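re: that chain from earlier
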Amino acid sequence: MSTSQRDPDGSKSLFRMLESAVSPIVSGDFGPPHRDRAAMSSRVSFSQLRLEAEVDRYRAECQWGKVLAVVEQMHAARIHEDDDYGMLLTAEVLLEECLLENMELLRSSTPLMDKTQPRLSKVKGHLNTILSRGLLTPRYLNEALLLTAKVHYVQARYRDAQGMCARVGLEELTQEDQPTYHLRLLAEAFVIKGLSLDHQTVSSVSRVRLSEREEESLSCFLRACDAALSYLQELDKMVSTPHSKTFKTSSGVSAVDVDLGYFLQAALQSAYLCLLQRGHLAQGAHQLRRVLRVVESRGSQSFRKCAAMKLAQVLLGSVSEDSYWLPLGPPPAAWLAREGAAASKDAIYPTVKPPQRYSTDGCFCPQDVVEEAVLLLLITESMTSGEAVISRLPDQNLARQSSLQDATSVYDLLTIGMARRGQYAELSECLERAMKFSFDEFHLWNQL
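^ sequence. v structure.
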């Protein structure tokens, strides 16, 4: 029996089968089934999450070159092509690299000009585009505002910088489950606002308004310091315990290698320097003691050395035996009254993100001013002598002179402190340790 006799519609059925098989080819539809498309979409979203997590980590570690590399990967994968996220990251990298290259100008409050800083001009163009379009989420728009505040500050437009900081959602940066780099942004936002207030002219400001401005800037400095210390602690945890196998190979930087930059250094130091500059010695000493009780992180070692040195200077130069108060207690009421305060500033301005502090249970506590100062100096001397540059090579001359100057300051204060108690044998041991890097340096040899 023929096929047509068995199935009169066989040819039509065969045609339908061929049509269904050929139609995707004719229409150009080579796409996978719905399940495969869902799997591909899942892979794309996972890739985006992975790249964004890498960016957050590199921004926390200030590895700006690696941030640009991830931005290029996002661009190739067409991730964030409908917003300005890549432009925001590019602007941040250019700005941070520009600031790192101009640290001396920033320390001397010399404005950075567009003519001499072409990268700064690019940053301003990117940020203006981002803010005018408004394509980013509120979180990233706040970050763009903070970058703009930085640009205004380094170009000496302090009122504009303060205005940008006022628009930044600082409360959002303090929420739980935020990336570590938000603590850095928080510290920078507070210190930029505080420094901008201090830099503004005061000729036409009343005495009451001036006092209010000083209090506002001090509260910004106190919050900036605690946020910066919390950032360094979280950064230390991130580097010590990578979150995934990806970062074990791609992120081998330690917290010590991170250049803190101008604004983070200012965030750590501005509070106690501001208090001491205004003559508030008791509150300045109290702030120094607070930061030294913070759990140490590798990124804070240099800052802790400077803070311990400054506190020893204050104790030996401004605190007598009779007016000394124990390190764990608040400043005496008599000291606060002389400085025009009813309570310590940290009690008046609670921090938004307190860093972790050491427990004081069972710890050693100095009982007099010389004991505390000498203890601080011995710790500082150990760090300073260990970091001293011994090399006599010409290219190491500046580094050697800088480390020698730091060490000399420590040994001078140790001489004052130990001589008050007649501890000359212990002082000689300290000075002998300095001989390894003090060749042909008369001052330390003469002290010994």
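Confidence is low (pLDDT under 50) at residues 1-42, 244-256.
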